[in-house]
């Protein structure tokens, strides 16, 4: 039986590939998609999620909009990576996938209640929607199998010195999720920087030859060019699909059980994830932290999924 999943995302180039991996792999069942402000304003991220599904020919998956900003902070979209519309590069088609009338919380609740088994939540942006759901619908916590989140880092960040963007965007939400007691897997920069979009990767995606791959290559070209300018990385790291890959096949990543705290008050460190890899603090473990990636296996999953789409 495929694992039922809900993706909460802020597309974003790499979020698009996470959606495609979930839609194109038979080991997971994509029940729904919720959107959050992060890489772009909510208007853009919601439209982009619908476009991603439209391009790939995915039907019957509801898309609902969620929070338009962090719990307590001001939204700062990642325009320096993703462009003003959060999906720079290709000419974006009009989405054929409709916007569901429910909120992200309402859609998630309905999907959890309707599922025959607990559902895996896969957030690939700031954790605002997940935090709000846990606060507003505490009675449904038992319907969540686990949370696999792209965010944080075991080392330095990519926004300022210490914080990774998704954690930095809403550290209060991340703190709430890590203290929730639910099973959490953290996919941070330390592993996502192993998923580099090399020229060979782009060529292998292009060789698929379908509509999805052609659109994907345009996304990857823009993404890598932006990373070269802003981070000095000509081969951009495709962060978000690793979360879905772990839901499909946990052997794709080595994880370490440990304690994670999220910094919410530091002047220079807000959003930093303090990952106690050596049990220095003696605190109860509250997360599986992804450490290393089986890179060939990961890219095979991505390519096979794109090839299975339109």
TrEMBL record:
Residues 5-300 form the Inosine/uridine-preferring nucleoside hydrolase domain. GO terms for biological process: purine nucleoside catabolic process. GO terms for cellular component: cytosol. Pfam families: IU_nuc_hydro. Keywords: Glycosidase, Hydrolase. GO terms for molecular function: purine nucleosidase activity. This is Purine nucleosidase/pyrimidine-specific ribonucleoside hydrolase. It comes from Lentzea fradiae.
